[in-house]
């Protein structure tokens, strides 16, 4: 079903000014920045890419192949401050000196999503939340693609949105949107906005205030009209708290596993039920590919999107039953000597680790640690007492983990590499146990990113 998109982000900027093409500067040369550079070049801008750090070889080659000017290892301020607009990669905080100077100079700083949204009339399905957004975005894409829709998957996942806008012609996009992306989105509009949950995460970027982070997440509803849809978790206390002070214009579609929902999704005994404008869908939770309490929420959110787009029940049932979860999210690695190894490296906050532990049915040796983003480990203590026989720390500074759990588990050991962590966890575990890598922390102290951490762990398990 094709639905019209009157996205305000589609307003085009003038491409020509006095003296030729307008300068667009791009900060950061990762997937997001390089994709934005390519699209900007296609649209006639004079593009300059600047990365304060080193640029990965594959991205450098792309920029060279496209004849796009770039620099690495620092910022040439005169080049950047001569831009009419700057596209900032989501990982760069507003407190970075160059960003402060741009703001002082009244030069607009926007996200790649905001920029790319101007150049497509596709319908936008935008998914955010502290936990579950990658799984939900991937499942939603899977259902829509199987339903025959011409759909792309982008945002915080896969090829950048901007690059796909430049090279593809999709009617729909499923976008996984982080709070960092939302912070620099202004005119962009989500036709369908999904907010899964709000739990403390990235508080170092939000003055250590949950209300600031929550306000960022709620930007997913900005610019929505009465023709749009806002899908949210009716069981999430923080979401409901923020909604009390908000006027939401879009049609609201809640989901819950705790109460019956008239228009939206809910759990009826062992069945997911979705009711939307006479559209009815029901499926046994035992048939869902994604198991565990947290995945009921993810499946409900994806199912509501599919019903809004009027996909057939048969397509939904088949897709929700055969979906394979993403790499690094509760990914089964191997069973060795009766010990299961699970890679949940994508769990970069405490709440994600809580969900992982909650879904475990056997004794756990938990691999935890990395860059602590102001974590409150209190919510894990009860589950650690119930399920965790040992904690293996994987990080440079593990003091806060020791302090948090010294009374809750007998064994806490430190390791400095994925190989060492896997080896020690293997020796601490017994037949029937699970070794769970679910770090609750970012990975940048020992690894390039959470993918690198997950892959090193999987390689280490295969060497056991």
TrEMBL record:
Q: Where in the cell is it found?
A: Cytoplasm
Catalyses: UDP-N-acetyl-alpha-D-muramoyl-L-alanine + D-glutamate + ATP = UDP-N-acetyl-alpha-D-muramoyl-L-alanyl-D-glutamate + ADP + phosphate + H(+)
> What organism is this sequence from?
Mucilaginibacter gilvus
**Which protein is depicted?**
UDP-N-acetylmuramoylalanine--D-glutamate ligase
Q: What lineage does UniProt assign to this protein's organism?
A: Bacteria, Pseudomonadati, Bacteroidota, Sphingobacteriia, Sphingobacteriales
Q: In which pathway does it act?
A: Cell wall biogenesis; peptidoglycan biosynthesis
Q: What class of enzyme is it?
A: ligase
One Pfam family from the record: MurD_N
Q: Which family does it belong to?
A: Belongs to the MurCDEF family.
Mur ligase central domain segment(s)? 127-305
**Highest taxon above the source species:** Bacteria
Instruction: Name the Enzyme Commission number(s) assigned to this protein.
Output: 6.3.2.9
Q: Indicate whether Calcium appears among the record's keywords.
A: no
List the HAMAP family.
MurD
Per the entry, what this protein does is: Cell wall formation. Catalyzes the addition of glutamate to the nucleotide precursor UDP-N-acetylmuramoyl-L-alanine (UMA).
Signal peptide stretch: none
Q: Does the keyword Hydrolase apply?
A: no
Annotated ATP binding sites: 129-135
Question: Which stretches make up the Mur ligase C-terminal domain?
Answer: 328-441
InterPro entries attached here?
Answer: Mur-like_cat_sf, Mur_ligase_C, Mur_ligase_C_dom_sf, Mur_ligase_cen, MurD
Q: Which gene encodes it?
A: murD
Q: Which UniProt keywords apply?
A: ATP-binding, Cell cycle, Cell division, Cell shape, Cell wall biogenesis/degradation, Cytoplasm, Ligase, Nucleotide-binding, Peptidoglycan synthesis
GO terms (molecular function) for this protein are:
ATP binding; UDP-N-acetylmuramoylalanine-D-glutamate ligase activity
Q: Which GO terms describe its biological process?
A: cell division; cell wall organization; peptidoglycan biosynthetic process; regulation of cell shape
């Amino acid at each position: 079903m094709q639905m019209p998109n009157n996205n305000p982000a589609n307003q085009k900027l003038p491409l020509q000014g006095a003296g030729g093409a307008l300068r667009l500067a791009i900060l950061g040369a990762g997937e997001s920045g390089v994709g934005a550079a390519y699209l900007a070049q296609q649209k006639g801008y004079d593009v300059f890419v600047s990365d304060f750090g080193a640029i990965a070889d594959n991205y450098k080659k792309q920029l060279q192949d496209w004849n796009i000017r770039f620099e690495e290892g620092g910022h040439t301020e005169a080049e950047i401050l001569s831009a009419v607009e700057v596209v900032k990669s989501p990982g760069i905080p507003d407190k970075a000196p160059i960003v402060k100077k741009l703001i002082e100079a009244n030069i607009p700083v926007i996200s790649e999503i905001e920029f790319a949204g101007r150049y497509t009339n596709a319908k936008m399905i935008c998914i955010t939340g502290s936990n579950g957004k990658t799984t939900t975005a991937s499942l939603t894409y899977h259902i829509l693609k199987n339903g025959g829709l011409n759909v792309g998957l982008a945002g915080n996942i896969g090829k950048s949105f901007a690059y796909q806008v430049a090279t593809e012609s999709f009617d729909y996009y499923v976008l996984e949107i982080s709070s960092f992306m939302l912070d620099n989105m202004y005119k962009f509009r989500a036709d369908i906005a999904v907010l899964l949950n709000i739990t403390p995460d990235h508080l170092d970027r939000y003055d250590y205030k949950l209300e600031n982070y929550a306000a960022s997440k709620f930007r997913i509803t900005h610019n929505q009209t009465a023709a749009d849809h806002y899908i949210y978790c009716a069981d999430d206390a923080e979401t409901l708290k923020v909604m009390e002070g908000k006027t939401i214009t879009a049609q609201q579609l809640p989901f819950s596993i705790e109460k019956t929902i008239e228009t939206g999704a809910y759990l009826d005994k062992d069945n997911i039920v979705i009711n939307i404008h006479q559209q009815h869908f029901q499926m046994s939770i035992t048939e869902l590919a994604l198991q565990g309490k947290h995945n009921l929420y993810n499946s409900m959110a994806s199912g509501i999107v599919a019903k809004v787009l009027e996909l057939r029940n048969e397509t939904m049932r088949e897709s929700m039953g055969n979906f394979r979860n993403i790499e690094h999210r509760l990914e089964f690695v191997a069973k060795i000597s009766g010990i299961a190894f699970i890679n949940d490296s994508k769990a970069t906050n405490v709440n994600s680790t809580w969900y992982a532990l909650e879904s475990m049915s056997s004794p756990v040796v938990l691999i935890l640690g990395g860059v602590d983003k102001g974590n409150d480990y209190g919510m894990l203590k009860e589950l650690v007492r119930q399920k965790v026989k040992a904690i293996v720390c994987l990080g440079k500074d593990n003091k806060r983990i020791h302090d948090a759990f010294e009374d809750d588990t007998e064994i806490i050991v430190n390791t400095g590499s994925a190989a060492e962590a896997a080896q020690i966890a293997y020796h601490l575990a017994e037949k029937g146990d699970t070794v769970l890598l679910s770090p609750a922390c970012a990975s940048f102290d020992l690894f390039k990113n959470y993918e690198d951490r997950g892959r090193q762990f999987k390689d280490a398990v295969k060497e056991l």
